[in-house]
Amino acid sequence: MTGGNESCTAGPTSMSYLTCLTYILEEWTGVEDIGDYLSYAFYILWVLFPLVVVFVLPGVIVILFYVSILWLHIYKRKNEIKEAYSHDVWIAAREMLATIWDGHGRIWHGYELHGVENIPQGPGLVVFYHGATPVDYIYFTARLHIMKKRRCSVVADHFVFRVPG
Asked: Is residue 6 part of a domain?
């Protein structure tokens, strides 16, 4: 055995791997001109791709919300005894969640934070707009925590606190 597909390389004409795969699928399924069906399937996939992206992105954000909440709940249960003897056991949890959310913001949205040096050392007020979900605030606090090791409190509409989780 040579490790390759001898049925595709044997013969007077050499063919590409995709052409060979098409011939193998035609023989296996018994359908003639399977390339036409595959090109139609790829066209439908191309047409429906934006619709899939529209539903996948919010789904990923919601799943990430609930995974973060579940992880914090498990972390709290695990460290209840340590909390009595340590001043702040939540440092590791904050670092990990900030890293996860910062990575998500950078990968999905290309989120960057500019002008952090203009935030005063003492208290300050950052006013910004957010859309249907407060994800940009989460990206902001995660990036601020990574860059400056500072926490940011929020004043929000009562709707935000009605979101499950």
From this structure: no
Instruction: Check if the beta carbon of residue 35 is closer than 8 Å to that of residue 22.
Output: yes
- Quote the CA–CA distance of 22 and 17 in Å, as a whole number: 9
* 67 within a domain of the structure (yes/no): yes
Residue 12 falls inside a structural domain:
no
Tokens of 55: 């539903």
Scan for tokens 């990923």, then name that residue. 60
Q: How far apart are CA 8 and CA 14, in angstroms?
A: 7
Q: Note the pTM of the prediction, 2 decimals.
A: 0.51
The residues assigned a catalytic role are 130
First to last CA, the chain: 58
Helix axes 34-78, 17-29, angle to 10 degrees: 100
Angle separating helix axes 135-148 and 91-104, nearest 10 degrees: 120
Tens digits of per-residue pLDDT, 102-160?
988 888 888 888 888 888 888 877 777 766 667 888 888 889 888 888 888 777 777 76
